[in-house]
Q: What sequence folds into this?
């Protein structure tokens, strides 16, 4: 219905116009139900798809894909590319920063893309085949001409380890699925054997007198209940004391290793330990309640160093021929362990701050690559490690989000 007003010579007037819009409404209803039908069809189509915003936030995922991935759309209001594609897949479709002179393999490794590189980039396995779709790269070299078949060359394939980025203009690369390392499945569950709990750390429930104009001592000096003797506390650990005391009624749980203070936790917080097996192929991590010995989180992952060579010798060779090899491999394993730490803490619903101790086991090469120790002597007779005994080292100095890590003695055969 529409109304029009006007002014005649003698009086004002209004014209009322009434139309039958039932047919319009019916058409709208029909279009709406068609749209509903299409949405329902897309949601339940026998194919999974999703769309994301430029920041990687998933703004649509169809019900089929969500079901395949075991995602409850109603409960997961906020999904990211990582949730859908996993770490490596998310990195693969995201932009990678690279410098001119880097090979495509180095750029992929730095970004954590699991491009297969069995030979570690020496150019003898031809596993790292990619197709450059756009951008300036180095011309085909003699290694590629020898290693790639006529069909590969005709299909525009290159070896990522031999192809260098030559300037700063973007390079677009297609990575065939068989050039990606297969995801490894780790068997991390096992039988729990009851053991007497004897953690290396000790927990002390302490309090402090609130300060006043008559008591201007520092927070550490006002802590009461400390067993007698000299205690050592470092500045990074001490940084947690003022907030913990003031946030919890001047009470806290102090965790120490012998006479060294490791961390100040809120009162009654359970101190947790992180145990990790660093294998050449896979990582297995466990989060353990250090008071009861109960395992409260378990996770496994592929060792991210696999992007630099699938076996130990390929990784040692990389370190021997490239001074950046060792730092790169160390950074990769530290990143992988930090990811596992976050995962087991999320499983247990605790903050990584509650993890006060860690222990690592694994072969000699993985031991040295985690600690950043030179590995040249491991690759030549008589194959001696830098250290044969177990050791303890501050984990933060390695880049781990932990206070301490105990490193088991390296196993000799590797
Ligand atoms: S040929 Fe082996 S990594 Fe490129």
A:
């Amino acid at each position: 219905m529409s109304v029009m007003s006007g002014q005649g010579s003698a009086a004002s007037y209004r014209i009322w116009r009434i139309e039958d819009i039932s047919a319009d409404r019916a058409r709208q209803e029909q279009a709406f139900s068609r749209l509903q039908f299409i949405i329902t069809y897309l949601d339940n189509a026998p194919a999974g798809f999703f769309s994301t915003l430029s920041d990687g936030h998933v703004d649509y995922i169809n019900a089929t894909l969500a079901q395949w991935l075991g995602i409850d759309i109603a409960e997961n209001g906020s999904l990211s590319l990582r949730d859908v594609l996993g770490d490596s897949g998310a990195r693969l479709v995201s932009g990678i920063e690279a410098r001119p002179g880097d090979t495509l393999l180095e750029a992929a490794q730095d970004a954590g893309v699991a491009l297969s590189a069995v030979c570690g980039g020496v150019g003898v396995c031809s596993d790292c085949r990619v197709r450059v779709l756009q951008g300036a790269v180095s011309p085909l070299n003699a290694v590629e001409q020898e290693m790639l078949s006529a069909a590969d060359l005709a299909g525009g394939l290159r070896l990522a380890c031999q192809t260098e980025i030559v300037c700063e203009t973007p390079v677009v690369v297609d990575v065939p699925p068989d050039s990606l390392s297969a995801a490894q499945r780790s068997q991390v569950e096992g039988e729990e054997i009851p053991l007497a709990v004897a953690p290396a750390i000790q927990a002390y429930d302490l309090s402090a007198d609130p300060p006043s104009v008559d008591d201007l001592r520092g927070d550490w000096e006002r802590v009461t209940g400390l067993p007698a003797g000299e205690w050592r506390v470092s500045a990074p650990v001490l940084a947690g004391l003022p907030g913990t005391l003031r946030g919890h009624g001047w009470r806290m749980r102090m965790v120490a290793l012998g006479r060294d203070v490791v961390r100040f936790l809120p009162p009654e917080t359970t101190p947790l330990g992180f145990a990790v097996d660093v294998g050449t192929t896979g990582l297995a991590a466990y989060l353990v309640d250090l008071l009861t010995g109960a395992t409260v989180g378990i996770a496994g992952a592929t060792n991210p160093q696999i992007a630099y060579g699938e076996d130990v010798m390929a990784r040692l060779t990389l370190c021997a021929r490239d001074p950046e090899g060792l730092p790169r491999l160390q950074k990769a394993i530290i990143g992988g362990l930090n990811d596992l730490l976050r995962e087991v803490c999320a499983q247990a619903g605790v903050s990584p701050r509650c993890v006060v101790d860690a222990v690592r086991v694994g072969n000699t090469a993985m031991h040295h690559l985690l600690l950043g120790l030179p590995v040249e002597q491991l690759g030549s007779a008589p194959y001696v490690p830098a250290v044969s005994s177990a050791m303890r080292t501050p984990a933060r100095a390695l880049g781990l989000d932990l206070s301490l890590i105990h490193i088991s003695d390296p196993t000799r055969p590797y």
Q: What stands out?
A: The chain has four domains: 22-92, 95-179, 202-265, 272-407.
